[in-house]
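The data are passed on as follows:
___
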Amino acid sequence: MTTAGVHRAAATGFADGADIYAASRPAYPGEALDWLRDRMGIGASSRVVEVGAGTGLFTRLILE
């Protein structure tokens, strides 16, 4: 436990090993993002919330 009462694993999250995870995890296929954008009507002025983003790999694709 930390002094704030938060377990170390929760406090550090992806900080331990995030670089290895991000480098070795495959990217999402562009077709998946195209499908989601078209299906949901997402455009340049849309606001999108990604819940449980982890390292933010998919979030970066959405921002592009």
Observations:
- Residues 3 and 10 are 13 Å apart (CA to CA).
- The two ends are 38 Å apart (CA to CA).
- The mean pLDDT is 81.
